[in-house]
C-alpha cells in the first residue's frame, strides 16, 4: 500500500525533530558549537511545537493502523517540546556541555512524540526505547562523577528488567488476539470471549513497564537514586517529560483496550485505585525524612504520580481531562522547584536542607518564587496546583470514590509538612553564611517564566482545561 505524500503533514513535528537532529549533529562535527548547540536545539524544538499547534484541531485518523494523528497526540507533542525547551534553557544556565547533550534531549523528544501517537504495540515498544536509551546516557552525563555513573547504571538495569516484563505482557496480548493493533485488539475483546486471567496478567505486565516510566509503586525504586545522581536539569527533565510520556501511553492504551468500554472499566479502576493510594502514600511518607532536596523532590514526584493516577482510577471523562490539565501545571511547578534547588546547589556545592537556611536573606527573589512552587505542589489556593488537584478530586467524587479522595486529601496534608519545612528553613532560620547568592537577570527571567503560569492558571484556568478536554474527547472510543 503506497504512502500518500499528503500524510507527511501529519508527521511534520517528527520530521522537524529528525532533520534538526541530523543537521545539529553534522554542524557540530564540522564546527563544535558548545553552548550554541543549545540555541539550535531550542529553535528545532520550537519549530516542532509550532508545527504541532498549526495542525490543531486536525483530523483524527490512524495511519497504517499504527500511528494516530489526533488532538490527543498533538497535545502531548506540544507538551514534550515545551518540557524539552525548558530543560535546554535550564542547562544553559547551569553547566557547560557539548552538543551531544542537546542531541540526546532532541532525540528523547522525538521518541516521546512518537509515543504520544503510538497505536500499535510494536511502535509503542520502539518509542519507549527511543525515550529510554537517551535517558540512560543523560543520567550519566557527568563522566567523572561516581554518583552520576551509579545513577545511569541503576537506570539501565531497572529499565532493562521492566522492558523485558512489558514485552512478555505484549506477547501474551498478541497471543490472545493475534494482533498488535490497538483497535483490532479491542474489537477482539468485544466480539470474542477471552481468558480473564491471561488478559489480567498481560495488562499487568504491560503496566509494569509503563509504571516504571512514571515511577509508580512498586516500580519506583530507581527514582530517588537516579534523581540524586543525575545533573539537576536532567533530573527535572526526568521528573516531567518521560513521566508524562509514560502516562500518555498508559492513557491511550487504557482507553482503547478496556474490554467493556472506557466508561465501565472492567475492574481497572480497582487496580488504579490501589496503585494510586500506594504510590502517593509511600512517596509522601518517604519524603518526610529526606534531607537532600533532590531526593525529597524525587519522592515528591512519586507522590504526584499517585495523584495523577486518581484520574485513571475515576475512569471517566472528567478524570482523564484532569490528568492532562495536571500535567501542564506539574511541568511548570516541578521544573521551577528543581531550578531553585540548582541555584543554591551551584553556590553551596550540595542540595541539603541546611544549605537553604536564610535563603530569604541571601537570595530573596529565588526564595519567594521557590515558596510559590512548593505551595502549588501542596495544592494550596489560589495557585494552579490547587486547581489541578480540585479537578482530580472532583472526578473521584463524581464516581463516588470517596475513600480514595480521602486518602488523597490526607496525603496532601502530609506533603504540607515537608514542603513547609523547606519554607521555614528559608525564611525563619538564620543563614549559615552571610554572602548573597547571585541572582542574574537570566536566572530571574527563567524563574518568572515558570512561576507566572502557576499564578495565572490558579485564577484563570478555563482555556487550558478546555484544551485538555478537547484533546481527550477525540481519543476516547
Give a brief description.
Helices cover 76% and strands 1% of the residues. It contains 19 helices and 2 strands.
Explain what you see:
The chain is mostly helical and 477 residues long. It has a domain at 267-477. It has helices at residues 12-30, 36-54, 71-94, 99-117, 121-139, 146-177, 182-191, 196-213, 222-229, 232-257, 268-288, 293-314, 317-348, 359-362, 364-378, 384-398, 402-428, 441-459, 462-473; strands at residues 61-63, 67-69. It has a two-stranded antiparallel sheet with strand order 1-2. Strand 1 and strand 2 (67-69) form a beta hairpin. Helix 2 (36-54) runs parallel beside helix 4 and helix 8 (196-213) packs antiparallel against helix 10 (232-257). The longest helix has 32 residues, at 146-177. The protein is globular.
Question: In terms of topology, how is this protein built?
Answer:
Blueprint: H1 12-30, H2 36-54, E1 61-63, E2 67-69, H3 71-94, H4 99-117, H5 121-139, H6 146-177, H7 182-191, H8 196-213, H9 222-229, H10 232-257, H11 268-288, H12 293-314, H13 317-348, H14 359-362, H15 364-378, H16 384-398, H17 402-428, H18 441-459, H19 462-473
Mean pLDDT: 85
Gyration radius over CA: 22 Å
Shape: globular
Query: Total number of β-strand segments?
Result: 2
Main beta sheet strand tally, sense and closure: 2 strands, antiparallel
The number of distinct helices, counting runs of at least 4 residues, comes to 19
Low-confidence stretches: 261-265
| Order of the strands making up the biggest sheet | 1-2
What is the CA–CA distance across the termini? Answer: 26 Å
Amino acid at each position: 500500500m503506497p504512502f500518500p505524500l499528503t500524510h507527511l503533514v501529519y508527521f511534520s513535528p517528527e520530521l522537524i525533530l529528525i532533520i534538526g537532529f541530523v543537521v545539529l549533529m553534522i554542524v557540530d562535527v564540522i564546527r563544535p558549537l558548545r553552548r550554541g548547540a543549545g540555541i539550535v536545539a531550542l529553535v528545532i524544538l520550537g519549530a516542532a511545537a509550532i508545527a504541532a499547534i498549526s495542525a490543531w484541531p486536525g483530523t483524527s485518523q490512524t495511519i497504517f493502523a499504527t500511528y494516530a494523528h489526533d488532538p490527543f497526540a498533538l497535545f502531548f507533542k506540544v507538551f514534550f517540546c515545551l518540557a524539552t525547551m525548558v530543560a535546554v534553557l535550564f542547562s544553559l544556565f547551569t553547566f557547560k556541555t557539548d552538543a551531544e547533550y542537546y542531541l540526546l534531549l532532541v532525540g528523547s523528544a522525538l521518541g516521546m512524540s512518537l509515543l504520544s501517537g503510538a497505536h500499535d504495540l510494536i511502535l509503542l515498544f520502539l518509542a519507549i526505547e527511543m525515550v529510554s536509551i537517551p535517558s540512560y546516557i543523560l543520567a550519566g552525563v557527568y563522566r567523572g562523577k561516581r554518583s552520576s555513573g551509579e545513577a545511569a547504571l541503576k537506570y539501565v538495569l531497572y529499565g532493562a528488567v521492566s522492558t523485558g516484563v512489558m514485552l512478555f505482557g505484549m506477547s501474551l496480548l498478541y497471543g490472545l488476539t493475534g494482533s498488535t493493533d490497538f483497535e483490532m485488539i479491542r474489537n477482539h475483546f468485544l466480539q470474542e470471549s477471552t481468558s480473564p486471567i491471561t488478559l489480567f496478567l498481560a495488562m499487568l505486565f504491560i503496566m509494569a513497564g509503563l509504571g516504571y516510566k512514571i515511577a509508580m509503586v512498586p516500580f519506583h525504586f530507581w527514582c530517588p537514586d537516579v534523581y540524586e545522581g543525575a545533573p539537576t536539569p536532567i533530573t527535572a527533565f526526568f521528573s516531567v517529560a518521560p513521566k508524562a510520556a509514560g502516562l500518555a501511553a498508559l492513557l491511550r492504551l487504557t482507553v482503547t483496550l478496556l474490554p467493556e468500554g472506557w466508561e465501565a472499566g472492567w475492574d481497572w479502576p480497582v487496580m488504579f485505585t490501589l496503585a494510586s493510594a500506594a504510590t502517593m502514600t509511600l512517596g509522601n511518607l518517604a519524603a518526610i525524612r529526606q534531607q537532600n532536596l533532590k531526593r525529597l523532590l524525587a519522592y515528591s514526584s512519586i507522590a504526584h504520580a499517585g495523584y495523577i493516577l486518581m484520574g485513571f482510577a475515576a475512569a471517566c471523562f472528567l478524570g482523564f481531562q484532569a490528568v492532562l490539565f495536571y500535567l501542564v501545571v506539574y511541568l511548570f511547578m516541578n521544573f521551577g522547584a528543581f531550578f531553585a534547588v540548582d541555584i543554591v546547589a551551584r553556590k553551596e556545592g550540595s542540595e541539603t536542607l541546611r544549605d537553604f537556611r536564610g535563603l530569604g536573606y541571601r537570595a530573596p527573589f529565588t526564595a519567594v518564587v521557590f515558596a510559590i512552587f512548593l505551595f502549588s505542589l501542596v495544592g494550596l489556593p489560589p495557585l494552579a496546583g490547587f486547581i489541578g488537584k480540585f479537578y482530580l478530586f472532583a472526578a473521584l467524587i463524581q464516581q463516588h470514590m470517596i475513600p480514595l479522595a480521602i486518602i488523597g486529601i490526607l496525603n496532601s496534608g502530609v506533603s504540607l509538612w515537608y514542603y513547609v519545612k523547606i519554607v521555614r528553613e528559608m525564611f525563619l532560620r538564620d543563614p549559615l553564611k552571610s554572602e548573597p547568592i547571585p541572582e542574574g537577570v537570566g536566572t530571574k527571567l527563567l524563574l518568572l517564566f515558570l512561576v507566572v503560569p502557576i499564578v495565572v492558571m490558579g485564577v484563570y484556568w478555563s482555556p487550558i482545561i478546555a484544551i485538555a478536554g478537547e484533546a481527550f474527547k477525540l481519543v476516547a472510543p
